[in-house]
Amino acid sequence: MTRMIFVNLPVRDVQASRAFYTSLGFTINERFSDETVACVVVSESIFVMVMERSRFEGFSLNPISPAGTTEVLNCLSCESREEVDQLVTKALDNGGATWKPAMDMDFMYGGSFQDPDGHAWELNWMDPAALQGDAAPEAATA
After folding, report:
1. Which candidate among 28, 54, 93, 97 keeps its CA 20 to 30 Å from the CA of 22?
2. How many domains does the structure of the chain reveal?
3. 141 falls in which pLDDT band (50, 70, 90)?
4. Which residues form the VOC domain (predicted)?
């Protein structure tokens, strides 16, 4: 069985979120979308469900975190340093905001942004040799 992940995010404006995430190169699965939710397809196994806040509240026993707080950090792997930079640039050019400065550890590189609703996204590239244990993993804990 292939595991899948569905990240559910409350948003103020589903149409604006659709436009933002498609500007990053992701697609929308219309079968699981309507005027209150959009199913953003990040990959074959990763989906982001952007939901109107009132619809999101129906799925949670707890209140939505207030603006200016962080409840979750979403981290997405990238295939290269260039892809990290490209996605950050696209996000900032299409309504996203700067979040943290870029991180460069030689074998690992990362960038980040906030979507229009303030959800934090980190982007990470790691040298494939580091995944095989050929790089210093102790440097990865920052």
Report:
1. 54
2. 2
3. very low
4. 3-126
Work out the angle between the directed axes of helices 81-93 and 14-23 (0-180°, nearest 10): 150
Residue 20 is encoded by which pair of tokens? Answer: 């933002």
Residue 118 domain flag: yes
Tens-digit pLDDT profile for residues 104-120:
998 999 999 999 999 99
User: Would the CA dihedral through 125, 3, 73, 13 be positive or negative?
Assistant: positive
Phi, psi angle pair for 90, to nearest 5°:
-60, -45
- Mean pLDDT of all residues in 15-30: 98
pTM greater than 0.70 (yes/no): yes
Claim to verify: residue 52 and residue 105 sit in the same structural domain = no
Domain limits at 134?
Answer: 71-142
CB atoms within 10 A of CB 37: 18
